[in-house]
Design goal:
alpha/beta; Aspartate Aminotransferase, domain 2; binds 4'-deoxy-4'-aminopyridoxal-5'-phosphate; cytoplasm; serine biosynthesis; aminotransferase
């Protein structure tokens, strides 16, 4: 078996140790004589798996006790609608910071739901290469929440600070799909955090929502049951059949983060080293470039372009032949992108940097 280095933006690499454990437990989960996929979600075995996953996640992120953790479906994209539907029952305007393609989709969805939406600050004028600073944020008078995207996965633009919502009681809502668990986090600064699982959490099919309890009473009357956070919280995320296997695998990832990596501070240091090594290689050459201002360069998604885009196809073919998979940029922007999520080892970055140096020497 050869596992290649996988730089996919999502569904992304999973830790090999997690896949090995899942393989070992696949046919016969801990002597029960069946796989996790074949268990009732209401069985004692599965409820124990589900509770352990939540407890480990709470420990990793130090989630305060007045927050609920919901294991939902539909991807982060479904929460683009879930956020206004759950938070604007008493009216108010949806406020957004616009820093890239995913934030734009969230804004569009709020507009689709006929919610008054307001862009409180935007990176459009700088060409999406820097996030707006705190003093540029101008909330609307009737603000119901402020939403932002912590890390824009396509542009490779990441917030280096947590925005403040000066207005009392107004929740800060964050799409953390591509940066959650990349390092320690002060959850208490947020009203709601949500993330699709398929990057730093586990396989696709699961969506995490972390919501402060006092916000569970703000849903619009027309909020569909399956999108209603309070319904999910009251049913311990089992109002209907949850994505059980994805929940189980995510639990294995949380265990791996705790027991093998040593927690989020240790993960943070590794992620710093990986990103620094790749950006240094890009900055140290005339052949590669990345336009993002230093303080907002994403640690998880590193887009870069070659000086001559006629070499793009060759770069992708040669890198794949060298065992470096999925380096193509998002189809909407082209170029290259290396995603360096938690499960991508430092050895992968070393191999990529070596390959890039060699490619530039041969083709530069
Ligand atoms: N937000 C961000 C920041 C993302 O990176 C993605 C997926 N790449 C999404 C939202 C959409 O996630 P999903 O596919 O789970 O709906």
């Amino acid at each position: 078996m050869t596992r290649k280095f996988n730089f996919c933006a999502g569904p992304a690499a999973l830790p090999t140790a997690v896949l090995e454990r899942a393989r070992a437990e696949m046919l016969d989960y801990q002597g029960r004589g069946l796989s996790v996929m074949e268990m009732s979600h209401r069985s004692d075995e599965f409820v124990a798996i589900a509770e352990k996953a939540e407890a480990d996640l709470r420990e990793l992120l130090e989630i305060p006790s007045n927050y609920r953790v919901l294991f939902m479906q539909g991807g982060a994209s479904t929460q683009f609608a879930g956020v206004p539907l759950n938070l604007l029952g008493a009216g108010g305007s949806a406020n957004y910071l616009y820093t890239g393609i995913w934030g734009k989709k969230a804004i569009k969805e709020a507009e689709h739901l006929a919610v008054g939406s307001h862009v409180a600050a935007s990176s459009e004028s700088n060409g999406l290469i820097a996030v707006p600073r705190q003093n540029a944020i101008q909330l609307s008078g009737d603000v119901g929440y402020l939403h932002y995207t912590a890390n824009e996965t396509i542009g490779g633009l990441e917030f280096d600070y947590i925005p403040e919502v000066a207005a009392d009681g107004v929740p800060l809502v964050c799409d953390m799909s591509s940066s959650i668990l990349s390092g320690p986090l002060d959850v208490s600064r947020f009203g709601v955090i949500y993330a699709g699982a398929q990057k730093n959490i586990g396989p696709a099919g699961l969506t995490l929502v972390i919501v402060r309890e006092d916000l569970l009473d703000r849903a619009r009357k027309d909020c569909p049951t399956m999108l209603n956070w309070k319904t999910a919280a009251e049913a311990n995320s089992m109002f209907n059949t949850p994505p059980t296997y994805a929940w189980y695998l995510s639990g294995l990832v949380f265990e791996w983060l705790k027991d093998e990596v040593g927690g989020l501070a240790a993960m943070n240091a590794i992620n710093d080293r990986k990103a620094q090594a790749l950006y240094a290689a890009i900055d140290g050459s005339d052949f590669y470039s990345n336009p993002i201002v230093t303080e907002n360069r994403s640690r998880m998604n590193v887009p870069f372009v070659l000086a001559d885009d006629r070499l793009d196809k060759t770069f992708l073919a040669e890198s794949e032949a060298a065992g470096l998979l999925n380096l193509a940029g998002h189809r909407s922007v082209g170029g290259m992108r290396a995603s360096l999520y938690n499960a991508v080892p430092e050895a992968a970055v070393t191999a990529l940097v070596d390959f890039m140096g060699d490619f530039a020497r041969r083709h530069g």
